[in-house]
């Protein structure tokens, strides 16, 4: 995700706008955000010009928010709460997020188009504004301090809220708007996600979709930081994910997969032979690996050492084709190879079922298009995997 760079939102403008919605008058709002009335009025006018719509109806009774203002205000309030300080500027947030995501000033400069000197200055000014050390230098690399990590997460979530608010205003204006960033674990990429994207794109051609592939470990951080909107794949059973919400959507039954002509295909009984062959499986602690361990014990064999750990279906396929190795995978993930007869599968000796679903941030409020995408994910799963 390090290639993604945030725009530099004018946070003071959003703070002025949110305060005016909250207080209903320029006088009270100006006092609340420590601006003069002319400065606050100008901030709102600038925001209206940027958005291309009126945010308030001005009258003798005060400032009444319009419909787009009511859409944007809760997002702006949430963003300002995440940023946590009125002294922080949009340029500082953009610079610090780029540095946090890329790990070096040189890479952050490349991602943002800003000079390394400008980034240094913005991050240093941010540390002064917040009164805390945000980064430690380790040669050319930059490590975030614990306070820096906390701030980076808050800033990332703030930017996600502003993106969502602006997308909702644009949708209200009838413009194609918004972007959905989906974190895709291996199983979701086979049929579920592609079919959902095809249908969604047909109904919402103006909404961009970005798919970020990875394991649960690789995607959970960006999800928590607001860089991705939702994550699809095997759910973590029994795990305490206080800040994430897991929604089971369907169940999957992995099977034993091997090359066609494998000696095991002609065996009378599987149980005793499973430990005789090399296994290619994802890393220890992943749901599939845990199911495999339980399956092996239920079949009366102690799980053997896994010589090759791999979560890439493409790589696993090649390893199976060129050896007598076995794996545990959903047939949907290798449908082409199974139909072509180059790979074969057998039912597991002990039933293996895993829950597949959608993981989002606790308390996440999807935009209209995001909610439509979620509904379509459930619909496609119901048709394809029921």
What does this 3D model show about the protein?
The protein has 386 residues and is α/β, with parallel strands linked by helices. The protein has 3 domains: 11-152, Winged helix-like DNA-binding domain superfamily/Winged helix DNA-binding domain (Arc Repressor Mutant, subunit A), CATH 1.10.10; 178-251 and 356-385, D-Maltodextrin-Binding Protein, domain 2, CATH 3.40.190; 254-352, 3-Layer(aba) Sandwich (D-Maltodextrin-Binding Protein, domain 2), CATH 3.40.190.10. The protein is built from 14 helices and 14 strands. The strands form 5 sheets. It has a 5-stranded mixed β-sheet, sandwiched between helices. Helix 1 packs across helix 2 and helix 9 crosses helix 14 (368-385). The chain is elongated and about 85 Å long.
Outline:
Helices cover 47% and strands 17% of the residues. The chain is an alpha/beta fold.
β-strand amount = 15-25%
Number of domains: 3
Whole-number average pLDDT?
90
State the helicity in percent bands: 40-55%
* Strand order in space, largest sheet: 6-5-7-14-8
Order of helices and strands: HHHEEHHHHEEHEHEHEEEEHEHEHEEH
Largest sheet: 5 strands, mixed
Characterize the overall form: elongated
CATH class of the largest domain: Mainly Alpha
Number of strands: 14
Named CATH topology of the largest domain: Arc Repressor Mutant, subunit A
Give me the CATH architecture of the largest domain, please: Orthogonal Bundle
**CATH homologous superfamily assignment of the largest domain:** Winged helix-like DNA-binding domain superfamily/Winged helix DNA-binding domain
Class by helix and strand content?
A: alpha/beta
- The value of Rg in angstroms is 26 Å
N-C termini distance: 34 Å
- Detail the poorly predicted runs: none
Number of helices: 14
């Amino acid at each position: 995700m390090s290639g993604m760079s945030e725009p530099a939102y004018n946070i003071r403008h959003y703070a002025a706008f949110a305060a005016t919605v909250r207080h209903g008058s320029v006088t009270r709002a100006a006092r609340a955000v420590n601006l003069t009335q002319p400065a606050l009025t100008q901030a709102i006018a600038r925001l209206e010009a940027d958005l291309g719509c009126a945010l308030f109806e001005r009258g003798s009774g005060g400032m009444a928010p319009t419909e787009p203002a009511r859409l944007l205000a809760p997002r702006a309030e949430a963003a300002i709460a995440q940023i946590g300080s009125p002294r922080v500027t949009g340029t500082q947030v953009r610079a610090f997020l780029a540095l946090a995501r890329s790990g070096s000033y040189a890479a952050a400069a490349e991602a943002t188009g800003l000079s390394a000197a400008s980034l240094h200055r913005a991050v240093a000014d941010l540390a002064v504004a917040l009164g805390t050390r945000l980064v430690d230098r380790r040669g050319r690399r930059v490590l975030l301090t614990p306070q820096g990590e906390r701030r980076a997460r808050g800033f990332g979530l703030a930017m996600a809220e502003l993106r969502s608010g602006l997308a909702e205003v644009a949708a209200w204006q009838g413009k194609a708007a918004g972007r959905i960033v989906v974190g895709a674990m291996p199983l979701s990429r086979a049929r579920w996600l592609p079919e959902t994207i095809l249908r969604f794109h047909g109904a919402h051609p103006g909404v961009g979709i970005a798919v970020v592939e990875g394991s649960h470990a690789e995607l959970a951080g960006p999800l928590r930081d607001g860089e991705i909107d939702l994550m699809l794949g095997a759910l973590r059973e029994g795990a305490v994910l206080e800040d994430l919400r897991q929604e089971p959507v369907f169940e999957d039954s992995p099977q034993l997969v091997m090359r066609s002509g494998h000696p095991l295909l002609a065996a009378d009984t599987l149980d005793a032979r499973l430990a005789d062959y090399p296994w290619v499986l994802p890393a220890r602690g992943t749901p599939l690996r845990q199911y495999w361990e339980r399956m092996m014990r239920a079949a009366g064999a102690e799980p053997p050492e896994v010589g090759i750990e791999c979560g890439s279906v493409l790589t696993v396929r090649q390893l199976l084709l060129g050896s007598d190795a076995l794996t545990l995978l959903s047939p949907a993930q290798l449908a082409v190879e199974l139909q072509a007869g180059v790979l074969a599968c057998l039912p597991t000796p002990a039933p293996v079922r895993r829950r597949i679903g959608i993981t989002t941030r606790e308390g996440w409020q999807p935009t209209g298009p995001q909610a439509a995408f979620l509904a379509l994910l459930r619909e496609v799963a119901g048709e394809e995997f029921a």
